[in-house]
Amino acid sequence: MIKILVIHGPNLNLLGKREPEIYGKATIEGINKKLNAIAKKKKITLEIFQSNHEGEIVDKIGGARDKYSALLINPAAYTHTSVAIRDAISAVNIPAVEVHLSNIYAREDFRRNSLIASVVKGQISGFGIDSYLYGLDAAINLAKNNGHELC
Ligand code: DQA
Q1: Are 109 and 4 in contact (CB under 8 A)?
Q2: Under a CB-based contact definition with an 8 Å cutoff, are residues 119 and 150 in contact?
Q3: Is pLDDT of 116 > 60?
Q4: 1 close to 39: Cβ distance less than 8 angstroms
């Protein structure tokens, strides 16, 4: 059974209202609805978690070992600052996909550095809500390649 943990980082609860010219008009509920629809169709299980707090995200990832086949994460602003989230992903040894709505390489200089990128299988950045959909596809494939068969 494929079970994927989806983590939305800080301020993503404000999507829809937050800088729509950068992040689009989709809300986090809208994104989650699309992810859940794909999960249902592909007969996999998702757990979706959003937090504005670094320690909560670290705890969630730290407890994920042996519970999830893959991790799909938009670390949001923590992408650029959090050694703790980076180390948590590295510690649990679950294949991970990093996603961003905006193209982090086409914005301010400080966004060009992801501390997370070196501990994930790959990164998808700049496709708006589709970044999550492509990311989920990638996470499912990683899980399958790790031997987590669909039930
Ligand atoms: C983001 C990009 C980050 O730089 C920013 O801090 C976010 C959202 C994105 O999805 O484009 O909060 O991760």
Answers
A1: no
A2: no
A3: yes
A4: no
Rg of the Cα trace of the chain?
A: 14
Q: Tokens standing for 56?
A: 């909560």
pLDDT tens string 83-102: 999 999 999 999 999 999 99
Residues in contact with ligand 1 (CB, 6 Å cut-off): 11, 74, 76-77, 79, 100-102, 104, 111
Which residue is listed with tokens 């609860």? Answer: 13
Q: Which two tokens stand for residue 58?
A: 């670290």
Both tokens of residue 89?
A: 């992903």
Q: Are 42 and 114 in contact, with CB atoms under 8 Å apart?
A: no
Structure tokens at 61: 């990832």
Residues annotated as catalytic are: 23, 100
| Residue whose CA lies nearest to ligand 1 atom number 7 | 76
Q: Which of 52, 74, 105, 110 to mutate to test the pocket of ligand 1 (most atoms within 8 A of CB)?
A: 74
Among protein residues, the one whose CA lies closest to atom 3 of ligand 1: 76
